[in-house]
Amino acid sequence: MRMSRDAYVLLCNHFNQRNWLHSSRSITFQEKMAMFLITIGHNERMRMVKRRFQHSTETIHRCFHEVLNAMMNFAREVIVPTSSNPIADASDRHRKLKQVFPGAIGALDGTLVHAIVPSDQQNRYRGRGKGDCFQNVLGICNFDMIFTFVWAGWEGIAHDSRVLKEVAFNPTSGIPFPPPGKYYLCDAAYTNTCGFMAPYRNTRYWLADFRRQRALTKEEKFNHAHAQLRNVIERAYGVLKARFPILKQMAPFPFKIQRDIVIACFAIHNFIRKWNIHDQLFMECDEDTLFANSQDEENHTQSVHDMEWGSQSIEDMAILRDEIATQLMSNN
After folding, report:
1. For labeling, which of 5, 67, 86, 325 is most exposed (least CB within 10 Å)?
2. To which H or E segment does residue 52 belong?
3. Element of type H or E holding 317
4. Domain DUF8040: where (predicted)?
């Protein structure tokens, strides 16, 4: 079920205690949860789940959607802003990077999730020159790889900055704007403006770019430090997609159900991390043995479009960025 036995038991009991999931006459709530997790954790089709659990296809289908609906309540509970307190067991490298960016409270980025859409809509979902269809998902996570905001369902062709702009100016989105003096780290697809710190454009940025030659200019030193700290969201996406293969090859559900499945995957990811449950995928990620560059390929070829934030906000953030870059240069 792509999680430990302890995590599974805790998850089932949590849903039962919240009255989100109940046993029926012939199926326990634990079995309902197991059917759901097998489906999204191994991308199993209903007929395979039917064979494994020995229930009718109609029963499997009904239980899957019952758990998925409960997951939406769970997501509202666990995908929420968290405190910006430093992580107790953070590495020395992480602590030094946080000192470079004292106002950073997390990282923001988009990711592509495979989607199945009707043929007359496929052009809008063929993201970034690829043949398959995708939905664009905007996520924000803190430095403990816990997602604090998720917005799913955008067409794959939509540029990341457009998605952020639409979400930011949508009063129903609930996006947690950083408080004054704080900001999210984001890549060059976004505008460097109040609350969102982006790297210098037309300058080396991706971590792979610095393996051949160290940073030389103040802009490169800034970009290298920025990329190292912002990398947390790429690693978080890497863990998420490694745990849930359905995100790489979506089942042919209606698009609204596909979007809800994505949100459910984020919610379970947060649950495992927040409850401090022993988990092999997170252990491997914390050791930097996997996932370090899981998103680089998606972002290399993006064009850049400025967002309409206001010239004063852009100027203020540019000054702050220059101050950090100058400090990095003087420290070396």
Report:
1. 5
2. helix 46-53
3. helix 311-331
4. 1-72
Closest by alpha carbon to 277, among 67, 9, 34, 90? 9
State the chain's mean pLDDT as an integer.
86
Contacts of 95-98 spanning 24+ positions with Cβ under 8 A: 97/225, 97/228, 97/229, 98/143, 98/229
In residues, how long is the chain? 332
SS3 87: coil
Q: What is the DSSP string of 232-288?
A: HHHHHHHHHHHH-GGGTS--S--HHHHHHHHHHHHHHHHHHHHTT---HHHHHHHTT
Predicted TM-score of the model (pTM):
0.89
pLDDT confidence of 287, banded at 50, 70, 90?
Answer: low
Show the tokens assigned to 266.
């984020």
What is the distance of C-alpha 230 from the center of its chain?
Answer: 12
Residues 6+ apart with CB under 8 A from 137: 110, 111, 112, 113, 150, 151, 152, 153, 154, 262
Q: Which amino acid type is present at position 157?
A: I
- Give the C-alpha separation, 87 to 85, whole Å: 6
219 and 213 in contact (C-beta within 8 Å)?
no
Whether the predicted pLDDT of 311 surpasses 60: yes
pLDDT in tens, 227-279: 999 999 999 999 999 999 999 999 999 999 999 999 999 999 999 999 878 88
CA distances, 284 to each of 7, 140, 270 (Å) = 17, 21, 17
